[in-house]
Amino acid sequence: MSVSAAAETPNDAEARDHRYTSVAIVLHWVIALAILGMIGLGWYMGDLPNDNPAKEGLYQLHKSIGITILLLTIARILWRVMNPPPEDAEGLTGWEKRLSHWVHVGFYVLMLAMPLSGWLLVSISYDFKIPTVLYGTVSWPDLPFVSWLANDIGHVVVENIHSKLAYVAFALLALHVAGAVKHEIGGEEGVLKRMLPGLFGKTAGPRAPSRGALTAFGSALALFAVVAAIPALAQGGGPKADLTAGGEATDLNWELDENAENTLAFSGLYESATYDGTFGDWNARIAFYPDDLEASHVTVYVDLSSAIASKKLYTDSLKGAEWLDSGNVHTAVVELGNFQPAEADVEWGTPYIADAALTLKGTTVTTPFQFQLEIEGDTARMEGTTTLSRSALDVGMQSDPGADWIADEVTVSVNLTATRIAD
Ligand code: HEM
Ligand code: HEM
Which domain holds residue 280? Predict the structure, then answer.
């Protein structure tokens, strides 16, 4: 017999049987604190003005903690099924027992309904559509089959449910705390210490034995993994962009140097801070003759799904239909022509200007493209930039048509090294 077991009195053993398991206690307090914190956060973030730079991050944090609460609640319910709570505390009258049970049931419904209604709310937003990225890392999909609610009425109803549940939480909490305190003070046995860690009072250890941790937490984790895999599978499943199109041109005389760091980048202003990103997959088919600019032409193919922005949240946003729609439209094409020498001060190479006709989601917009080029033997180095208009290209026009948050101008820059194609 171990020392601690030898030191145990019959009272201690009995007290343990009237207590919740340690896992149930930890889950109770973690979820209780998280819910109260989330209500505060929900109210606080909603009151912030739109131009507050912290707002975007707080909404994402709210969604991240909310989904965590949902998963912990699922684990908690499974745990409870496998580890039933202790018998009702002694000294409770019949109606007190019934009320306390219904408050508990109400809380379980609330712990599911609050995060689910929040998830539903973001899934049916239809004007300013912001994706959910948990803790800045995991893309979380919208709920399926709910697009029929994506309208003014659906939104108002779900938003009301989500926000009014906070008052339901407070009503339940008032009854819950009143019950716990009343029976701690008045009851012979008391209920509070059943839900307090063993640090308090005479009740030393947890109620043993507990079981099913793997099933409870494993199931919640498995559910998380399956849902989190959906965006990755949806993105990877479609056909890839064809970056080798235009094979019929026979006058190409340069090709991208695959060993060089060729970059195609974009940047702009969002709430007066800079956002930026790059396209990882693109190709250029180049026919460029400094002595015959008229015969020169360049076509650039860009795989839109390869856009990576400085924040995962923006990367996910770009995939949306109103932005790059990269799940449906795979390639953007830029045709460069009408090359002319330019008047510009450059630190190296020769300045040029050309017309860049960008075709994106079926819309073509032509803008001037300025670049500088240096040819040394069989190697050419080029750096250029152009400014595009989001509105002209119909990008992000649902969320921010007036460019109130995201500037209309987007700067695209190219930096490449090419090698001469041998005759
Ligand atoms: C237990 C979990 C949650 C609690 C306690 C909670 C609580 C709240 C509260 C009190 C508000 C403020 C409502 C108001 O303005 O009166 C709010 C807003 C909001 N919540 Fe939650 N929430 C939870 C989970 C979630 C989840 C999981 C999501 C999304 C995935 C979410 C998305 C939102 C959004 C988008 C708003 C802003 C609504 C608006 O201003 O239109 N919430 N939440
Ligand atoms: C939003 C916050 C809270 C939520 C959602 C919540 C939820 C719950 C639930 C669902 C149970 C039943 C556990 C079960 O039988 O499976 C429970 C039990 C309990 N809670 Fe809370 N609780 C919250 C806050 C509090 C607070 C602030 C106290 C402290 C006064 C407290 C004290 C207790 C006690 C003592 C029990 C055990 C009751 C008994 O043995 O009959 N809870 N709570």
Answer: 242-420
